Amino acid sequence: MESDYLFSSLPIKKVEGILPEIVTDLAVDSRAVNAGGVFVCIKGFTVDGHAYVQKAIDQGARVIVASDTVNVDAEKVAVVYVEDTTRAIALLAPRFFNYPSKQMTMIGVTGTNGKTSVSNMLNSILQQAGEKSAVTGTIGFNLDGVLYETENTTADVLTTQRMISEAVNAGCTTMTMEVSSHGLIEGRLSGTEFDIAVFTNLSHDHLDYHQTMDNYGHAKGLLFAQLGQDLAQSKFGIVNADDSWGRRMKEMTPFPILTYGVHEQADFKAYDLNLTAEGTSFQLRSPVGEFEVSMALIGEFNVYNALATIAALFAKGLEMTEILDGLAVIPAAKGRMERVETDLPLTIYVDYAHSPDAIEKAIQAILPYKNRESKLIFVIGTGGNRDRKKRPIMAEKASIADYVILTTDDPRDEPYDSILSELEAGMKHDQYACIGDREEAVRHAVSVAERGDIIIFAGKGHEDFQIVGKEKLPHSDAKIALDEAGKKFGEGIVEK
Ligand SMILES: CC(=O)N[C@H]1[C@@H](OP(=O)(O)OP(=O)(O)OC[C@H]2O[C@@H](n3ccc(=O)[nH]c3=O)[C@H](O)[C@@H]2O)O[C@H](CO)[C@@H](O)[C@@H]1O[C@H](C)C(=O)N[C@@H](C)C(=O)N[C@H](CCC(=O)O)C(=O)O
Ligand SMILES: Nc1ncnc2c1ncn2[C@@H]1O[C@H](COP(=O)(O)OP(=O)(O)OP(=O)(O)O)[C@@H](O)[C@H]1O
């Protein structure tokens, strides 16, 4: 790209050296710089990118964008000084990729719980309807069926723009993005022009970062504000009418809002819910008539996720029959109340619940189908060096289960003791164990299980690792549980 065009997007303080006519690439990580590229020094939470300028130059950087003084050979490398490099990359990245989000229908999904579930439902139905589409989020970047790993739920602004651009180049016509509150606050969505904004719900999480629920709710609202003010365009907000924060989202945009819910008045309202262990059905009242909806997903929370999906795809212009046919055959998203297939005399679910509300919803999805004689065993851990306030509330919600195992979920540098004692403070009954080592905790869950019992392993979901200290160690709740259960209930019983 021509550097004059690229850098004219910036409020520049000063340029040292001569800018090349063309720059080949844009990077915020010195390790990713290509010859002839631009390296933007970002001041992060842990390190300052200004410290990596020499590395970037060694990799071939031709231009450095900095806010602090950097020493370079002005004959070879130009330096563009700006006040704030984080704001600079937010302007440069969308321009470098030629504002790719304008070329597709962009759907953003935000909320405390349900982002991955709703995003994957949207993507699956779109693909079944014959559309080439992409989705990004906690599980990764799924580009028309091929999955690439991502670091965050919402990637940094440069990676985000690169992914959108790749989706456009691959011929996708819609892209769905999970939008985290961190991503919105940190400007990772700068330049992403959304057409449809979806709000699932808001409950206690991430208060180590946002401090108050008000700040957290405000951050989520930025997605709706980001729909913009160009009313010549056709855009929509999709909002959960049963969540009081839904009204706040509505205040953030002038575009039409479609509401969904089970209890309050809503454009898409579910009633006569039939929740079973095998699947879910309900009646749907919609702006275009009444429908019977059925799906293989379980739990009332998935009724909400389905309603959000239906409303968003309706707003996009799909026929109701296309939407409901697609919904009927969707499998659970990886690690979201996913039943582990086995011949063992136990029912095992792997789930990603790691906020108080999600824990309550996950247990409630199963509790009604449990026999009187059997136990529901719930394994829940919490992360080290993260939101400590939610720990006792997580255990309090987990107390609805008959037996609870409190453990860790990426303990990082925090000792087991503080994680476990803060969880334990919330327990409402004495049928529980505290076991810091997650593998031991999983084995313990199986050791206390009897034939017919149900175990939910919560918190890890799709993840196949456990972060201990700075190390990412391989870990699978399902594999460990099947191994232990195989030993306990007899040889020859294998995972299907
Ligand atoms: C607190 C936070 O948001 N941290 C994010 C932030 O990291 P950071 O500021 O620490 O970055 P840094 O490591 O200090 O690096 C600063 C700069 O130096 C550069 N660098 C670094 C090393 C080097 O050798 N060369 C180099 O150039 C880096 O590329 C970067 O540009 O920027 C990184 C790149 O974008 C993110 O991956 C990282 O997310 C961390 C992993 C994280 O855990 N974030 C959580 C809090 C988060 O964002 N979660 C949300 C919500 C999930 C949910 O809803 O559950 C999410 O969207 O994932
Ligand atoms: N609509 C919902 N309301 C409450 N709980 C939900 C809802 N949808 C899913 N859950 C629960 O929350 C867990 C996480 O779901 P999901 O991954 O879809 O949410 P998320 O918003 O993407 O989470 P994260 O931000 O941590 O990636 C699920 O495993 C389930 O237990």
Overview features:
UDP-N-acetylmuramoyl-L-alanine:D-glutamate ligase, 496 residues, Protein-Tyrosine Phosphatase, Chain A, 3 domains, tetrahydrofolylpolyglutamate synthase activity, globular, Udp-n-acetylmuramoylalanyl-d-glutamate--2,6- Diaminopimelate Ligase, Chain: A, domain 1, six-stranded mixed β-sheet
Question: Can you put this structure into words, describing what you see?
Answer:
This protein is an alpha/beta fold. The chain has helices at 3-7, 53-58, 85-96, 115-128, 157-169, 181-185, 207-210, 213-225, 245-251, 300-316, 320-328, 356-366, 390-398, 416-424, 438-448, 477-489; strands spanning 14-16, 26-27, 38-40, 63-66, 78-81, 105-110, 133-137, 140-143, 146-148, 174-178, 196-199, 236-240, 257-261, 268-275, 280-286, 289-295, 338-339, 347-351, 376-382, 403-408, 432-434, 454-458, 465-468, 471-474. The strands form four sheets. An eleven-stranded mixed β-sheet has the order 9-8-7-10-6-11-12-13-14-15-16, sandwiched between helices. Strands 17-18-22-19-20-21 form a six-stranded mixed β-sheet, sandwiched between helices. Helix 15 packs parallel to helix 16. The chain is globular and about 80 Å long. The termini are far apart. The mean pLDDT is 92. The site of adenosine-5'-triphosphate (ATP) has 23 residues, from helix 4, helix 10 and helix 12. It is found in: Cytoplasm. Its cofactor is Mg(2+). Catalyzes the addition of an amino acid to the nucleotide precursor UDP-N-acetylmuramoyl-L-alanyl-D-glutamate (UMAG) in the biosynthesis of bacterial cell-wall peptidoglycan. Keywords: ATP-binding, Cell cycle, Cell division, Cell shape, Cell wall biogenesis/degradation, Cytoplasm, Ligase, Magnesium, Nucleotide-binding, Peptidoglycan synthesis.
